[in-house]
Amino acid sequence: MPRKRDKPPAPVGWQAPIALARKVVTLLEEHTDPLSHRRAIFNLIANGPCYGDGDEVKRLSDAEVATIAHALQGYLRGAVRHTIPRASIDLSGVRVHTLRILDGASSFMDGPVLGQAVLALTLTLHLAGFKNLWRCKAPDCPHIFVKTHKQEYCSGKCQRRHYKQTEREADRAEREALRVKRARRAGRK
Ligand SMILES: [Zn+2]
């Protein structure tokens, strides 16, 4: 029987780790449609630092894409929390093949797509810097994002919403303080 993979698949297009991390995390976190999630998984596998066969991603059903995207989201959230549960996903069945090329080494992989995606995501985030992985500052937003500039929210929408909330709370606190003051003054009379 021929070996499953004797020749490395050609990487589709190399991308700087920080750009790849930002693209993938945005597609996974800010989009909910199956096409965006499929693109996130495809980018990880076809363009990641350890690459696999992107065509395998094209053959997945929407249900398989949803399962993998959900696992990757859980993994990302676990990776920014400092408590249990930590991010852990089983990579069994994934094979990594590394060969020396002139100026370094090239690594490619095969096996279950979820495992390949997690391996590619882990390597990408290590290269991009895990310190750049942040949780959105809006308390009601669970989204993770890759920080490439001074940014505290996953999106402008979250930033505007949280600003408005904070403003309303400040107004309420101010009104409440005024009410207490007036009540005290009235009590003294
Ligand atoms: Zn957000």
Report the average pLDDT across residues. Answer: 88
The rough form would be described as elongated
What compounds are bound to the protein? Answer: zinc ion
Q: Provide a count of the helices.
A: 6
**The biggest beta sheet, please?**
2 strands, antiparallel
Q: N-to-C terminal Cα separation, in Å? A: 98 Å
Poorly predicted ranges: none
Strand order of the largest sheet: 1-2
* Radius of gyration computed on alpha carbons: 23 Å
Hey, roughly how much beta strand do the residues contain? 5-15%
Output the helix-strand order: HHHHEEHEEH
Say how many strands there are. 4
Structure class = mainly alpha
Helix content: 40-55%
Structure description:
- The chain has helices spanning 17-29, 34-47, 54-58, 62-80, 113-128, 156-188; strands at residues 95-101, 104-110, 133-135, 144-146.
- By secondary structure, it is mainly alpha-helical.
- The protein has a domain at 17-133.
- The strands form 2 sheets. Strands 1-2 form a two-stranded antiparallel ribbon. A two-stranded antiparallel ribbon has the order 3-4.
- A hairpin with an 8-residue loop joins strand 3 (133-135) and strand 4 (144-146).
- The protein starts with 16 loop residues before the first helix and ends with a helix.
- The mean pLDDT is 88.
- Bound molecules: zinc ion.
